[in-house]
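Folding Problem: From Residues to Backbone Shape
Fields: amino acid sequence; protein backbone structure tokens
RECORD BEGINS BELOW THIS LINE
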Amino acid sequence: MSDDSSPSLEGRRLILGVTGSIAAYKSALLIRQMKRAGADVRVVMTDDAKRFITPLTLGTLSEADVLGDIFPESSDASGSWTQHVRLGLWADLFVIAPATAQTLANLAGGFSNSMLTATALSARCPILVCPAMDRDMYRHPATQRNLQQLRDYDYTVMPAAHGELASGLVGRGRMPEPEAILRRIADLLDGRPPAADALASPSVTDEEADPPADPSPASASSTPADLRGLRVLVTAGPTQEPIDPVRMLTNPSTGRMGYAIAEAARARGADVTLVSGPTHLDPPGGVTVVRIQRAQEMHEAVQSRRDDADVIIGAAAVADYAPRRASSSKTKKDEAELTLSLRRTPDVLKTVGANKRPGQVLVGFALETDDERENARRKLEAKNLDWIALNNPREDGAGFGTSTNRVTLLGRDGTVDELPLLSKRDVADALLDRIVDPDLAPVPSPS
């Protein structure tokens, strides 16, 4: 049975695939936690994995034989050479941790050149992949393409964690910690969505917020504390501009992107304030929340806090126009057409940019349908931003109302970084990576 602080996996049948990464030592810790949570575990190893940890160690911890060969020497009439088929039918979930770049390529290409990949091809259960490799290998377009291919196969890809790597570099590429993997396993088996889409923490009002604290153990186990000591201000959601007591001008923003950024920044140690328009989301724990409705209210909330913030990220969909006068009573319908007189609302980010203090980082979002990069660049310059995240609502998986996003990050120095289709939480971490390390392998802007 699991203890009170761990999810229960009682009676669940798990396959753990271990590949040739120095992070393979963490697989022993993961097996121990799986077993303590009540799971029945079978281990499949690649030959390269045996260079880092022995089958004896993993077999002892899992209390079962470790499989590594498609055609074992002990193959007999009982059909042991078809273990990969029977194993794939047996499991509730197949977890590959660590998953090297080579393994990702083999899985994406459909190769069955090892017991691990053959089992993956045979499996009818969900598959969770936890990449582990050096920073530039992880960021390489081939690796990102393979990860996207696996997502297209309906694999769940857990993003690599940020931190110090075996090469001595610091960046994203670390295998997530066993505690974080165990939580993701429990979520998948219980049918729960990722944290960015199911923010179940109690809301915290501006007045009730706790003082800054260290990240929770849950966050610290899989993400670095590289934003510790920084104050991050995030805007999220739509604004609503009343026409009368029952009608308003608004937009389809759900707030997911901004909430994911707030969650990611808090997990990385920042003191986070979230200025939110009306949404149905529950904010992450430990985040100060300021709730507003109208663009003017968001403007005032941000301007009163801008000087205290080290990083300001404007992910809200703020109305550009509002009715010049809102009626105090319901406007009755008649045969005549109704003409609304509109006024410009304050430009929240432009005002911040005009008053940006030295060292302050300002990030905006640009939702564009035509001449995307040109318009985004124009906004970046006009609002004095350091980064702008460009996306197009016409692209599948991007824009309003989705749990994913496809963005291009444009830097003030002219760099361009096109991200693949990612969950909004992964986009949030990628954006924060650029803030922490602006020189993180940028793609040169085309001439």
Remarks:
- Confidence is low (pLDDT under 50) at residues 75-79, 193-222, 441-447.
